[in-house]
Amino acid sequence: MEQKLSLSEKIGYGLGDAAANLVWRGALAYLTVFYTDTYGLSAAAAAMLFLVVRLSDGVTDIIMGMIADRTKTKMGKFRPWILGSTPFLGLFMVLCFTTPNLGNVGLLVYAYLTYIGLTLAYTVNNVPYSALMGVITSDDRERTSLSGFRFAGAFLGGLLVMGCLPMMVSYFGEGNDAKGYQYTMYVFATLLVTLMLITVYSTKERVPVAINSTAPLKQELIDLSKHLPLILIPLASITAFFYFRNLLSGTIFVAVMGISAVFVKKLLARPESLNSRSQQDIVDLLTNKPWLILLGMGFLTMMFNGIKYGVIAYYFKYYIGEERLIGYYFICLLVVSIFGALATSWLSEKFGRKPLFIISLLASSLFTLAIFFVPLGSTVGIFTLGCAAEFFAAIMPTLFFSMLGDSADYNEWRTGRRATGLIYSAGSFVQKTGGGFAGALVLIVLGSYGYDGMQPATIGQSLPGMRDLMSWIPACFGFAGALLFLLYPLNDKNQQEVTETLLKRRGVPSTITA
Questions:
Q1: How does residue 510 score in pLDDT terms, banded at 50, 70 and 90?
Q2: The domain spanning residue 95 has which CATH number?
Q3: Does residue 214 lie within any of the structural domains?
Q4: What is the number of alpha carbons within 13 Å of residue 223 lying toward its C-beta?
Q5: For the chain, how many helices (H) and strands (E)?
Q6: What is the value of pTM for the model shown?
């Protein structure tokens, strides 16, 4: 029989994202300014770094999702991976914010190696963590509540790292920012490991997920590798066009997308009996409309939030001229975010999840756009509009990850197959890709104004770019997301019908009430 989740289990699960966000939000908010102003990379080199590393995520996230789906241990499918990857995540968190004495070329190589290591460790940890939500409970309402606790935890972790990092860097570094960043990460890495252990041992995997394949994992990965070019080549062409923005890269992008569409059409027309499990998983995803729309939403909302977070340190340090306000602004945003995440379950009951998602996108985008018109020096106006926008922005990822579970349910209801890990890995992938593209866009825009963090004379000419990145540029992605989500086919009523049907198939009495 379906049971309500205990408060302790919800809190335990939420602490896992508090741990993950010590990495995620620390990198999102400070890694760009660390690379340009402390580590010594140019804006162009750092932008390329963000884009190239996100390409590797296209492979690792999907592979990790497949491996997790095929894992079977006494602890379950997902928790063993969280447990095993946690020490490596803490290690690369420290290494990524360390500045060795290696020379210009050596520093660039070190940045690539450590950032790839950080994203790989995060993948092995966070793909199973995200998928864990899909097997803790079958009740979509409890899943929304669990997602609220998850993102309350996420914002709490973000509050710690984003609010306290500048003060801790100053305290530990004593004027040496490179030393300050490294010692600060020692503290956060220790906390990360502690919180992740609590998550592993306070949660339980309840939803049975059959392994619908008799083929060895090695063969499944070989089959998958035949189709990876359908993901990587289009993504590479998008990345090249995004970075170079010229006629050649645009022509290549159009040609690649056209050829990819032809291959996808052939794959979808292939008889199911000829497909391996991994091939059928891909077909299932490509024909899962709720999942496809959520994939687009994950990217757009991450661009929306990632651009804002990526430019805040620059904005207050140079545009406002009050570097000390960076930590206080982050603290205000994340306190508001916790309330937004916790309010999501109640608001979704009142308005419905699809309308709430659209309302949140529009409201947050409007408040963000209004920052453009705030007079220079009006910090009260910036704090007020920023916090108002953040309340609604906090609702977006909370709904996104709970609705990914709905798309897994929809796929099982429609096909009889369930690839929870793969579905959540794709969600994690577009979030990280969006974050990478957001960070790169911040650096590209600043670079277009001639910004060089090691040359103070270039700061003044780049101030308009900082203002735009704080206001209308991210707002465009929010408005685009609202338009896209109008196409989302599931509402709360038909999702409830899907859930009840699946419970009957599994022989579990339904306790879901309208």
A1: low
A2: 1.20.1250.20
A3: no
A4: 19
A5: 19, 0
A6: 0.76
